[in-house]
Amino acid sequence: MSAPSKNFRTSMREEMNAQGVSMGELARRTTYDRSYISHILAGRRAPTAGAIARISTALGISGVPASSPESVSAEQELHLLDAVRRAEHSDVSMGTIEILAVGVDRLCRAYPTMPGHELRDRSKALMDRALSLLDGRTTLSQHRELLVQVGWLACLLGCVHYDVRDHHAANTARRAAFRLGEQAGHGEVIGWSFEMDAWFALTEGRFEDVVAVAQAGRDRAGVTSAGVQLVLQEAKARARMGDDRAHEAIQHGQRLLAQLSKPDHPEHHFIFDPSKYEFYAATIYTLLGWDGVAAEHAAEVVRQCEQPDGRRWPMRLADARINLGMLAARRGDLDEAVAVGSGAFEFDRRSGSMLSRASDLLSELRSLYPGERLVVEYHDRLVSEKARSDA
């Protein structure tokens, strides 16, 4: 047994060596984290009186004199207790944070149907309220939860700003979501910030950027809804580049999706539900030119959207109609192509990528039916819709 006059850290190290006790074994005996044991041995942390007693018992060390510089005095213990008390003091109740979380959830679930400008304004108002809570005194756990909720609102605002064609605000919100996710240590919020970056690049025709961003984001998102959507954004980009690896990517996305639990609220924008896979598959295979497979997936999207609860998916139905229009054009049916494709403009709620997809159909029509009256009419309709969106 070590003499009581020895420095505690030295005694601790000597006894561990003499007894062949590893840091992991000592952590098991004392129920402390291995990292805490390591910090004490390295002199990075001073052990508390309780830690000295527990480690001494575990190793058979007789202790250290009260004058040891590494021991914690009663006065220091009181300071530590006061620090804990202050850290746990808050001006915000947990009920307030729960109400905030419910509000954020409802807005995320309203994304598919609520008009973009209204959703933007409501989200900004809730963001202001959440930020005011962050300005108050909170516990550490409350502070993190508030950061997470503000992070989700930033993700939502990034998407909605892009839908209403305010691209500068969308990118500002995307960057904010990334920083908030980093501060909160929340991988999925970080993942969605990457997903927005990939989506914006896809809509703007920067396909190689999409692949790079999607692959980087997947490392942060892990097996989550954000991770699945990043894989499928990569698949879309590869399809637009005529790269058959889009098929491999979409299969990978399906395997990731199978690892997620079935959502209670599939309309939540940041939850990837199984029906959303059909929506992505229809577009990816249409872009690849795999018309038979694309038609099957597009028909399934329409079937889902025309069910009683299908009113939740106007943006998916619009995209499916564009895909069906492209497929009809390739079959030689110009009338159906224009009629079905024009149906995509019927909905007030529009995705930020809808007009880009409508341009896909126009390119297909011009390539196959140059100069046809119906093609000119579709072009004029698209120009009019773009002007209305920019107004």
Characteristics of this structure?
Transcriptional regulator with XRE-family HTH domain, 434 Repressor (Amino-terminal Domain), disordered N terminus, Lambda_DNA-bd_dom_sf, DNA binding, TPR-like_helical_dom_sf, mainly alpha, elongated, 19 helices, Serine Threonine Protein Phosphatase 5, Tetratricopeptide repeat
Explain what the structure shows:
Pfam families: HTH_31. The structure is a single chain. By secondary structure, the protein is mostly helical. Among the domains are: 8-71, 434 Repressor (Amino-terminal Domain) (Orthogonal Bundle); 94-185, Serine Threonine Protein Phosphatase 5, Tetratricopeptide repeat, CATH 1.25.40; 292-391, no CATH class. Helices cover 73% and strands 0% of the residues. The chain is built from 19 helices and no strands. The protein has helices at residues 8-19, 23-30, 34-42, 49-59, 74-88, 94-110, 116-135, 140-163, 167-184, 187-203, 207-221, 225-240, 245-258, 274-288, 291-305, 314-331, 334-342, 354-368, 373-390. α6 runs parallel beside α8 (140-163) and α9 runs antiparallel to α10. The longest helix is centred in the middle third of the chain and has 24 residues, at 140-163. The radius of gyration is 29 Å and the shape is elongated. The model is unreliable at 1-6 and 63-74 (pLDDT under 50).
